[in-house]
Amino acid sequence: MDDVSAVAARLLERGQSGEHAEVVAESERLLREPTGDLVDGPAGLHFARAVAYMSGGDEHAALAAAELMIKAAEREESAGWLSCGLSLRAVLRVEMGEQDVAEHDLETVLRDLVDAEDALLRGVEDPWLASNAHTGIALPFHSLRLYELALPHYTAAYEASTRGSTETGAPAMWLLNLAEVELDWALELYRVELVADAEKHSRDALEYAVRAGQAAAGPDAERWRTSAGIQECCARISCGEDEPALGEILTRRERAKVRGATADLHWSAPFVAVALGRVGRSEEALDLLRETLAEANARAAWIQLAALQHTRAYLLAEAGLPGTAETLEYGQTLAHALWRQRLRTLHVAETMRSFDTLRHAHDQAARSALVDPLTGIANRRAFDDAVASHAALEPRRPVAALVIDLDRFKDVNDTHGHDAGDALLRTVAGALSASVREGDLVARLGGDEFAALLPGADAVAAQRVAQRMVDAVDALPDSPATASIGVCSTPAAALPGAITRADQAMYAAKRAGGNRVTAG
Fold first, then answer.
1. Closest CA to 408 of 388, 392, 428
2. What is the Cα–Cα distance from 69 to 36, expressed in whole angstroms?
3. CATH of domain 1-164
4. Does the record bear Transferase in its keywords (predicted)?
5. Each residue of 424-446: pLDDT tens digit?
6. pTM for this one?
């Protein structure tokens, strides 16, 4: 974890523990340190600030902070922070859309999530950042009931967390997320009478919950064990194991109540009520549901409220009260309609993801066609395309052409083998690329021959760059190779002829002993 990520991690922990205003103030102070302007700070600190606003219930301020974070991540070219920023914006838009229909914009949310996934394809080395990026994508997919899309990201977050410190609760937390999404999926499947599928997801949830209890560590280990125990009992109840699980979950819920874990209490209530009803304690079950519904505030997820109401209707119908069977039937009709709506949303999301996957594969293939696989710099095709582009688009602009050939490269291959020769070519490519200006192009034409295009460079500037290249290759440690470079500057329209003259000048440099620059 780098320094910015470490600071962001500490701020996030404080912000999610109730210190919202303090974290906003501290993150803003740190963001202004580089230049005095809040905008110029690092993406990780923008993330901590945005999450603090969100935890404090100010979604509009959090959204503005997320926009600044996305710009900072793009400026830093950080795939991990960009993914976190995009998914955070999606989370906020989901929450705002649930509170105000005017804020509902499903297509934009899905677009952000697909773009966040696309950013992760570039790779994220830091396990902590990777965990947060994957979780950031999983959470809104979960909120949208797109369980199939949330699960792989929760799994990736867990796997990334196991590469970090083992003395934290992170692995247990991600396993609890996996158990929760499986149980939410099971609840919805039960409501649409897909019982076999629901039982399968309940068994998967049971496995994750057991593992979460075993993985609990760090200062919050007891908290994770209590949550894991509640989820394990819910999974057992969902699998029909009412008698052994009921007593245990009631005990664990008392512990959760003591530490104020209302989320665990509200989330587990439908499972406990079902178990109570099945062992003949229906009045107790209905009291629990009434109490939970009264406590659930307006910000509670509607899918959670639906689970509570559906369970209540089921128990009332079981009791044979007049009109309750019709109410339950109406509720099941709604559940089926919501399930169909979920499947339509899933189809839209998967179509967008498939399109992006194809686009990414096309972009990768296009880039691969223009990149030399050995050295990672441009290849001859890219060089030829650049020559044609300069000649067509800016025919009068000066462009310098450099043709570069290594001296004594054959000696390296003959003495040390082709692997050593390949390693030297990669090192030389890096040295040449580091010697040019921003906007210049360095390409490997084949073998030990390279070339460069320097847009806007006259003869003096071109020879200065070429000399830097000669010096850089000569300074490579443990290498007998040097470089001979031919240089020619010309209007872009005459580039093909200039390249020929630069090539001739390169051979003149070699005949003169190499390790030098010759003008053509």
1. 428
2. 16
3. 1.25.40.10
4. yes
5. 999 999 999 999 988 899 999 99
6. 0.69
